[in-house]
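REQUEST ID: PR-0412
SUBMITTED BY: lab tech R.K.
PRIORITY: routine
TASK: structure prediction, single protein chain
INPUT:
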Amino acid sequence: MTVMTNYVCWKPEVVTATIATEAASPSSAVLLATHTPLKIRLRDQAEAEGSITEAEFLEQFLNSPAKEGVRVAPILGESGSGKSHLVRWAKAKISEIPGQRKVIYLPKTRTSLRDVIEELLKGQSGPIFDEIRGQLGSLRESVDKEKLQRRILDELAEAVREVERVNMFTKVLGGERGLYVLLHDPVFREYMLQSESFVPKRAEHALRGRGENDDDVPPAFTTDDLPTSIASISETSGPARAMYRRLTSDPNLQTAAIDLLNDHLDVAVMRAADIGVGSIQRAFMALREQLVGQEIILLIEDFALIQGIRRDLLDAIIEVGKVEGEERYATVRTMMAVTTGYYDKLDDTFRTRVAASSPVYTVDLPITDADVDGGGTLTEFVGRYLNAARLGAQRIEAGPDHVNACMECPLMDECHAAFGATKDGYGLYPYNEPAIRRAIAITADPERKGFFNPRRVLSRMVRGVLTTEASAIREGRFPSPEFLQEDRARDSSQPPNRRLPDLDLSVREAVYDRYDEPERGRYMSMFQFWGARTPIVKTDIYRAFSLPPADIPSESISEGSSQNQQPPVEAQPTGTPKIRESLRRQLADVDEWSKGSQLPQAVARDIRNIVRAALVADLDWSDPIMKNPSANVLRAAAPDGGQLARTVSIEGSPENLPQSVKSIVRFERNPKTASFFQSLLRFKDSGGQESTEALIRLRSISDEYRPEVVARVIRAADYTEEQLATAAASLIAGAALCGQVPPKPKLKEAVAAMLWSGKAFRRGDAARTARWIEAEVSYIAARESAVEQLRAALGASQGAGAVHAIDDPRVRKVAEAALNRMDALQSGDFPAWCRTAERARTILEAHIPAQVTAWKTLLGEIRLHVPLETSYSSTVDSVIAATSVGQALGFVKASLAEVETANRLAKQYDFGAVTRMEASLTAVDSLPSNELAIVVGSVNADQVLAIRNYLHWTSEWLNAGLADAEGRERAGVIDVDNDIEKALESWLGVLSADGDEGFNVE
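STATUS: complete
OUTPUT:
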């Protein structure tokens, strides 16, 4: 038994050759084989609006009385509505009867001047007909496109020059200083004769008719065709510039100019083609005169395409046949297809005569009215064309009539059972009836979505799908992403009120959860089209397209969802409050967002606020250990308020984020996200009492994005490992300047240094310069807050309280990194909270040279009194001895008690402080900055200063005593015996020491 899977019962090339989108393209056999009767509406204001069948329409047209020999039946409709098809069908149904009825058919594919006139005059002879044929020969032989387009401009110029100047616009536009000067000015003519401009296109149309890709409605002057943007305006004539300025400054004048040009266009084309104005009317009236007693059936597929002679033809077909009671001209029954807008712009007189002769018909058929009373018009229409596609034009034309390709197919029973068939037995495969209805609706003209458009149905869902999707069906990929792709994309981009109803959100979410692409897209299309917007699709349809039956839980299928036109809202159990209208609107907004609409700002803001609150609510600061961040830091890391989108981004909502900004959470537009958003909104509306699902998902999102939030908080607080190491290095260097770091510090000493706050620190070293002391005090004040921040970055706290524990392993790691960058502090990226302390440290560091100089000066003063070869202790002993000897002679020029106290203290001073300082300062010029800071910071010069002061003060009173002794000896004031003389010599020796030891006395 043959199984229907991946089966293609047509040939794409045959489909292309058979399914035409223009009414005049197929043969009569194909036309009748595919024709489906459509309802025709009456537009006649004299009758009640209603609809008639095609048979009733044809009966009215052929057999209703022709008032005064004239019946004009306009068939109105927009592009692709089937109006030309109706005329073509009538042509196939109306036979010419010699001696009674002559049929003249003007197809839309033969609309050049020559083609139209030849059709009108076919088979006629006589002087007037021969004259027009001669004019056609001249047109064929002597006029090319370039010549014709120039003539059209010339004729338009003459026409507008002679226009009757009856209103404010024609007074400006008419005459020799109106449009006439623009149409004759070389610069403006060059603009209007550009290849893509209107006049060249119109000339081409007049010569060769409608091109294969031309629009239904022919080109007509629009405001875009006016020369209102001339770059070389300075090269135009003065009158032309004046007219140009008036035209470009007045939109109403532009509209009047367009109307004026279009009013005279037909006449201008005829004159440009050397066809006498009125000659077509005279010829057609002569034809009517020849055929008096008969009827002329004039069928015009698209009246707007008849170039140049429309006015003549209109006059001829409404000319009465009876003159003074005598039948002078043959009755004319005219059936003309014309777009509604074009018809309404025709001359009022013509439309009045038409309304008096016949109803005005319209084939614009609302899709909702196409299947009244279960007639199945849409399904029958598509089914016939699907059958024609399977048969092909050649077989249809070979007969017999109404062949059904399905009758020869071994899979017919299985296929029709799965996909369905028309009342005449034409299979609907690869569609079924729900798929046909949705495809017709989705391929409708975007500007007229509610109306059936046969041309778009044929070109897109019949010929388009059968040709482009044949390989996808064979390969088991149908419906593929290309299935009606353009139409589906356009529909999804429409505002909600113009978009086709979609699957319930629960179904879309279930598909999204269970399938990946491309299967996800296939199931979505399957449910939208073949399932009538539900997952309920026949198993045989799945098998036909090699798609496993959908695994969609029953709770995702809402009862009656195929008729649901509104976004789904959860059913309300009996006795529970109804959903508030504001929430209902928000749920609907989210549902529409999932289908492509923009999410309203207020709804997006509510969702973002809920998600942000969850992101920052349960942050755990145990990994890494740090103090709870402040509200400002949290706001910087996860912005709120007007910057919420930087924290929570939602695809398809207003955000205006720079491309460089990456939000913490990014929600993509999909059914799963939409369902989550709806649960969040219900959660918010209930005050947190409903939607456990929302809480579970929020917790999952919080857990997923916690590392990113933490990382952003760390960056916002300037707590990155790099920044902490840099700050720690700065703080260690600062502690070194304050004497808190030993030479070659170990790791634990570095940790202590970087966490040293400096509180209550006061240096007792009086040998420091005033500027050093001032800078050091300033640094200590700035350092305290930096250390507090460092401790916050590395320690734990209770809420906003003080840090009570430090993460020892991490502190050691930071300290180790800090020690490795002590030599590169100048290039460090200091966190904001450390920059003030770092600036104060660099100021303090800048005082090192001055401080070293001061110390060297101090040492120099000491060595002046205690040279390197001299012992400080012996020097002090000499001073004590000199004091003892000299006090009896009166040479001690200071308080003896003070001298004795100073001498006693001097014996206690550690002169090693001097030698150690000398050793320390010996290599300061070659030390790296970090070692220099340790050296300078660790120096304590209190003893050195005390020694210097003692020596200096002793030098002063000794020198004074010596001077007194020498003076008295020279003056002979003292008479010393030998003992005293020896004592004096001994004392002077103590002071002099041969000039190399002891005090340097003068």
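NOTES: Residues 281 and 315 are 7 Å apart (CA to CA).
REVIEWED BY: pending
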